[in-house]
Each structure stands twice: as C-alpha cells, then as structure tokens.
Description:
6-stranded mixed sheet; signal; serine-type peptidase activity; 19% strand; ClpP/crotonase-like_dom_sf; alpha+beta; 2-enoyl-CoA Hydratase, Chain A, domain 1; Tail-specific_protease; 3 domains
Amino acid sequence: xxxxxxxxxxxxxxxxxxxxxxxxxxxxxxxxxxxxxxxxxxxxxxxxxxxxxxxxxxxxxxxxxxxxxxxxxxxxxxxxxxxxxxxxxxxxxxxxxxxxxxxxxxxxxxxxxxxxxxxxxxxxxxxxxxxxxxxxxxxxxxxxxxxxxxxxxxxxxxxxxxxxxxxxxxxxxxxxxxxxxxxxxxxxxxxxxxxxxxxxxxxxxxxxxxxxxxxxxxxxxxxxxxxxxxxxxxxxxxxxxxxxxxxxxxxxxxxxxxxxxxxxxxxxxxxxxxxxxxxxxxxxxxxxxxxxxxxxxxxxxxxxxxxxxxxxxxxxxxxxxxxxxxxxxxxxxxxxxxxxxxxxxxxxxxxxxxxxxxxxxxxxxxxxxxxxxxxxxxxxxxxxxxxxxxxxxxxxxxxxxxxxxxxxxxxxxxxxxxxxxxxxxxxxxxxxxxxxxxxxxxxxxxxxxxxxxxxxxxxxxxxxxxxxxxxxxxxxxxxxxxxxxxxxxxxxxxxxxxxxxx
Length: 502
C-alpha cells in the first residue's frame, strides 16, 4: 500500500469533510456532531441520503479497506488516501442515492479485486437501469448475440456481433461507461462481465435508463453490417427467448450438478458444475466403478462457480495416490501499540521489529491444508491420465480444487484462465440499504505463487470461440481428447504428466 503520512492526511480529510458540510449550511457544535447512522443498512432506499450519511458510508468503506484489504500491492499505482479525498468532492455533487451508489461502486472497482465491491440496492437498479431483451456473451474479444426476444430474432439474429452502441464503438463505450464500475481481479473477467452485463448490479454494454431507446450497429451472420433500434424494457416482462440449440443445451446442462458419459477409446467424461450440492460426493461415488474401467478421464469444471471446498477435497481424494497441498493464506494484522512503536523503527533498534505494523504491512500466515489421499481406499482410486477442463466461470472452491491438483503430475489442465478471485470477504452495511465487501484473505499456491489477479492458467490454453455459442463445436473438449490420445500413444504411466504435446 502506498502510505501517506497519516496524521497530516487525516487532518486534511477532516477539514475537507467539514468544508463540504458547511457549504450545505450545516454548522455543528460539539453537542450536535452527528453520530454514525443507526441501522444505516436498513434505511429505505426511497429516502434520500443526507450529505452526512453519504460521507459516513464513504468513510466507513475507506477505513475498513485501509485496515483490511489484502491486495494493495496489486494496485501499487493507487494512492488510497488521496483517492478518498477525491471521492469526497465527487460525493458532494451526487444528486440522489443512485448517483451516490454508482460513485461508490466506481470507488470499489479502483481496487481491482473481484471480492471487493459495493452493491447498489436492488430497488435503485430497478428504478434507474434497464436492458433490451438481448443477451450477449464474449468470445474472441467480441460481443456476441446469444439470445434475443422472439420478436427480435429476424432483426437481430443470434450469432451477430455488436459493433457500436449509439454510434460509439463497443470498446470505447466499455472503457467509458462500463469498465470503471466493475470490480474484477482479472482483465479477461472484466471484459466478460462488461459485455454480458449484470441485471442485478446495473452495468453492461447495453445498460441504460428504463424505456430509453438505443441504436445498435452489428455484423449480421451473413457478413453485412446492419442497424437496429431497440428499447430498454426488459424488467418486469415475461419474455420468450430465442437462442441457438447449442447455447440452450449448454445452459440447461449447467443446471445439472454432475453428469457422466462414456466417450471414445475408453475415455470417461464427468462434469461437476458446482461444489455446493451436498449430494455431489455421493453422486460422484455412484460413477466411480464405471470410471475406474477407463483409460483416461476428462473432468469438466468450466461451469463450476465454487461452493464448499470440503466437497471439492472429498472428490479429489479419489484422483490421487499421494497427499496434496492446498492454498496458503495470509491476512493483515493490526495492533495499535505495535503500530505506535513501529513509527520509531528507523530511530531505535528495539522498535525495528514493529515497523511493519506502522507501515500497515504486518501479516499473519496460515499454512496450507494437506489433502490426505489415504482417506479413500486404494482399490477405489481413479488414477489415470486426466484432463481437467477449466474456464472463466471456474472460481472459488473449484479454484481451490485446482490448487491441490497442481501437485499431481497426472492431472493436466486445459481451457481458459479461471476467474482469479477468492478469499474471505468482510461484509459491511452502508447507508441507504446497500452493502460492501472487502477481501481480507490472500490465497496463493502453497509455494507462494499468486493466482488472484491472473486466474489459474491452464497447461494448454484454448480460447473460447464464437462457434462455442452457435454450434456443438467444443474446442476445449477436443483438445482434452487429443491430449489423452497422445498420452496413450506415449505410453506414459498414470502419474507422469505429459508436459509437451508437440
């Protein structure tokens, strides 16, 4: 964290906040100084926040981030205290609760962390934001139309590529209106979220004021550039959606917690789409006898958004003969007296060991958990060449699974970098009914390598193509089959990873 001299900065902040209040006609004696609002998070969203409440919400978030945020080094260019002062001035100009919360969400996004965000109250989103009945997805860096209201399917066919919105090129609009409001640890997830949009968080390429019209320029699947004008009127309506059969099938498949099928040449395929279903382990065990007959295994975690890491561990125990090491964690530590002593670390030898507290760089480390392979009998193991399919939606406990799997040579990852954000959130209630989350725990590989901020990078990268949404072509699955076939030809032992396919 870039550290400003605290005494000086806090005096300036206090003075600045007072000036803002005085400009609004507020003058306080000692007796009338406002306390923190009671039950601030329960305040009705249709009641406009006072300037004091807005400043309180901003200050609460700034304070808790200052003490607890785990990734300041990944935003080394950010001066957090100076940023706080800058937002104080901007909050003074917000006209309503929605503008205030939009600004707060922008502040949180400056920390570039997927678990550190400000949530705008749902009622404000409904009041100020809507979308046309169009669903987009990202592939090859482009905004792909994957589903539309049935009445639009001729005007804007699925498979079209959005080129511009209201005369502004897609990337320019994203940079100006969307990226600044997305809390994301990774650039690939930020792009994915920006194009797809979020109906609950009120941002996206197509987001705008309810009932407003927008002009879309797009590349038609037939190669022609065309235009269509649509209304942002999706909220509150029953919509008949039109999509490709491939997209519809994949969306339906994601709803299944676990599925199994036998592929060619003695390869078993199993997809596990979450780790929160309490029955996942039992469902997996039901397939063990079949999978144990396989020469190779494809484990698909591309749609797995996480859940309970203990469930992930129980499944992984079947896939290894050896103990595996999980994530190492650390979190910041504040000790008021140590911080006071640490100020004199440069002057006195005895105070040197406390200097990290003064610099807000004191940490407590938690050693990695060890997955004990012998918890599963050897005659129930499935230790064969295994390709694990991963992607942008692989997150949370699924990433924990991959951190363990990194220590097993026969487990090979294929696909896209993962979500790249995990940790322990500190939840806050904010004035006006919103909330905030701050990531307080830093997780890494056992050897200290970071994956938050980058994603877990697969051994073989296979970028998602436009065909993924329009056809049954699955380049990731094909790459997994090619890898396993190649390994069979090489005749490598089950616990020897094939490092180079070339």
